Amino acid sequence: MNKVPMTVAGEKSLREELEHLKGTARPQVIAAIAEAREHGDLKENAEYHAAREQQGFIEGRIQEIESKLSVAQVIDVTKLPKTGKVIFGVTVSLLNLDTDANVTYRIVGEDEADIKSGRISVTSPIARALIGKEEGDVAVVKTPGGDVEYEIESVEYV
User: Fold this and answer.
1) CA angle, 19 as apex, 15 and 24 as ends, to 5°?
2) What would the pLDDT profile of 24-66 be if each residue is shown by its tens digit?
3) 5, 89, 124, 157: most buried, per Cβ within 10 A?
4) Cα separations in angstroms, 142 against 56, 139, 146
């Protein structure tokens, strides 16, 4: 199976969520199921059915996180040589040559992407256009509204 790139922060976040689900959420839902069972008839017990549904969600999420972590290739960009090239994990500042607007993105794994926080997926059109380019290069991003040109102003390995 192919390895999936992930930042150190992304791995830490998934491990923390996994720890919470296994250590806190799972025991709570097991206790809720036990308590609901004590109330008698399970067919008409809404608390029991809600707790069982919650348990299914928690167990599914635990499996999903464990699966993601098993194929993760954690890349610590701070330990890589600072060549000025755009690679996975870097923070890149761009100048839109059409609008003169500045934007800054961090290129992260698919699960970590959050455009509102300035984190874009390595598989996004912008990231694919930037990967391999260097500071000062112009990258052309194909968008539904036409091609957009960005000049790479800086590449930070943080």
Assistant:
1) 155
2) 999 999 999 998 888 877 777 888 899 999 999 999 999 999 9
3) 89
4) 41, 10, 6
89-143 residue pLDDT tens: 999 999 999 899 999 999 999 889 999 999 999 999 999 999 999 999 999 999 8
Q: For the beta carbon of residue 53, count every other beta carbon within 10 angstroms.
A: 11
Residue 151: other Cβ atoms inside 10 A: 15
Domain 77-156: CATH architecture, name and number where available: Roll (3.10)
Helix (H, G, I), strand (E, B) or coil at 128: helix
- The strand ranges marked E within 26-157 are 72-75, 91-96, 102-108, 119-121, 138-143, 146-156
Check if CATH label 1.20.1540.10 holds for domain 4-75: no
Q: How far is CA 67 from CA 10, 11, 36, 151, in A?
A: 14, 12, 31, 37
Dist CA 140 CA 133 (whole Å): 11
pTM for the whole thing? 0.81
Q: Residues spanned by CATH 1.10.287.180 within the chain?
A: 4-75
